[in-house]
Specification:
The chain is α+β, with helices and mostly antiparallel strands and 252 residues long. Helix content is 28%, strand content 26%. Strands 8-7-9-14-15 form a five-stranded antiparallel beta sheet. Strands 1, 2, 4 and 5 form a four-stranded antiparallel beta sheet that branches. Strands 3-12-11 form a three-stranded antiparallel beta sheet, with no helix packed on it. The chain is globular. It binds magnesium ion (2 copies). The site of one magnesium ion (MG) has 6 residues, from β4 and β5.
């Protein structure tokens, strides 16, 4: 079921989203080679819980044990933070976080370069972010879910990169994952029509090589089957007065 949010609910999700955005900004400032993904998780959990009423969405969701998903290099999504996973210069790490505030969730991810990365790695990050921006621009009343996916896919594939098919964006609100699914591929004017009050997480997962994925024996971490790099950027977006309103930005 697609749930339509009131303007007041959207404002609450934006408040959750500011904490999400603040968490990612904090990690971006603090990240250094030599830190572990558990260090990032500790920073995030402490920051989120310092806001009255806020708690991490992921902890306990389907049994996930941590506040963040941290996915390094060929890991696409759902990597589990660990003291044993140390970040090295030249790596990239997708940091994904959700916050629950006053009964509503917000969800965002960014992929961060650790120190200096190769130009081709930076291009993957830039194109993935651009594909998210293109997808968000299509999140307007009267468009369809397929318009979002098509826009993401065009940007990624024109740059020579792959679009992961097995994982998709999603509606979000009282439940972390709601309908509709938001694939990062599709055809214009296809799929569910978008209406005011929908809140969706748009999250392109883009690969340097073939987009096929597999899941590691930990049953969480999704990696590229060919072992090449993957990047992931995400925002929670409301369709408000016909237009996309990004809810997971840091203000000021
Ligand atoms: Mg996310
Ligand atoms: Mg999401």
């Amino acid at each position: 079921m697609v749930t339509i949010k009131s303007p007041r609910e959207i404002d609450t999700m934006a408040a959750a989203g500011r904490i999400v955005g603040g968490t990612l900004a904090l990690i971006r400032r603090q990240i250094r080679p030599g830190m572990s993904t558990e260090d990032l998780d500790d920073l995030a959990e402490e920051f989120i819980r310092s806001h009255p009423g806020a708690r991490p969405s992921f902890k306990g969701l389907y049994g996930f044990p941590k506040t963040l998903c941290t996915s390094i290099n060929e890991e696409v999504v759902h990597g589990i933070p660990s003291a044993k996973r140390v970040l090295h210069e030249g790596s990239i790490v997708s940091v994904d976080v959700g916050v629950l505030l006053d009964g509503l969730h917000a969800d965002s991810a960014t992929t961060i370069a650790v120190g200096e990365v190769a130009p081709e790695t930076q291009r993957l990050l830039d194109v993935t972010q651009a594909s998210l921006v293109a997808g968000i621009a299509q999140a307007r009343t009267g468009n369809h879910v397929g318009d979002i996916g098509h826009a993401v896919q065009q940007v990624a594939e024109a740059a020579g990169f792959g679009v992961v098919r097995e994982l998709v964006g999603h509606g979000i609100g009282e439940q972390f994952h709601e309908e509709p699914q938001i694939p990062n591929y599709g055809s214009p004017k296809r799929g569910r029509r978008l209406v005011d009050g929908m809140t969706i997480a748009i999250e392109p997962m883009i690969t340097q090589g073939n987009p096929a994925t597999k899941t590691l024996p930990d049953k969480w971490t999704v990696v590229t089957a060919d072992g090449r790099l993957s990047a992931h950027f995400e925002h929670t977006v409301a369709i408000s007065d016909g237009e996309p309103r990004i809810l997971t930005l840091v203000e000021g």
